[in-house]
Design goal:
Order of helices and strands: EEEEEEEHEEHHHH
Number of strands: 9
Largest sheet: 4 strands, antiparallel
Helix content: 25-40%
CATH architecture of the largest domain: Alpha-Beta Complex
Strand content: 15-25%
């Protein structure tokens, strides 16, 4: 169990949960969904409410305040595993390397913003190689912008597709 000074009425457990002592009986708090992560709204020592991600709170309680320019890393890549042993402060580069290592990096079709499938990217590259057709014409055939076609064919995006 650890504490954070600005949240004196809470206990931050190494197993990734928080106990509130705000009311007369202690209780384990149930996190709320906050995008891809979970978080809580906690009462600070100054009386204000602060909304924060659970993983960042657990990391702060057990590893100290987040250093400038750092972010919280889930070492095993499981966003639901908020145990202190799975969390560490690190750089953006370290966090991205973690994602590559454990296969959670959102590239290609796994990227929610993706407009193309791997099959389409291969077809675009093959077509460009065989015909030399302009990126604008290729883009029109696949229903994407010229820049998207250019980036896919030249591997600025979709680097992993052969």
């Amino acid at each position: 169990m650890a504490v954070i000074d600005r949240f004196p009425r809470y206990e931050f457990h190494e197993d990734g949960f928080i106990i509130s002592r705000v009311k007369s009986r202690p209780r384990i708090l149930k996190p709320i969904k906050m995008g891809a992560y979970v978080g809580l709204q906690l009462l600070r020592s100054d009386g204000h409410i602060e909304k924060a991600y659970l993983h960042r709170l657990i990391c702060e309680a057990h590893r100290g305040a987040c250093p400038d320019g750092m972010e919280c890393r889930h070492i095993d890549g499981d966003k639901a595993n908020n145990a202190a042993s799975n969390l560490a402060w690190g750089t953006k580069s370290q966090n991205e390397a973690d994602k590559t290592r454990h296969g959670t990096l959102q590239v290609g079709e796994r990227n929610p913003m993706s407009k193309l499938t791997e099959k389409q990217v291969r077809a675009m590259r093959d077509h460009r190689h065989e015909t030399g057709e302009s990126y604008a014409k290729i883009a029109g055939k696949f229903g994407v912008s010229t820049m998207t076609a250019y980036r896919a064919v030249t591997r600025k995006l979709w680097r992993t597709v052969k």
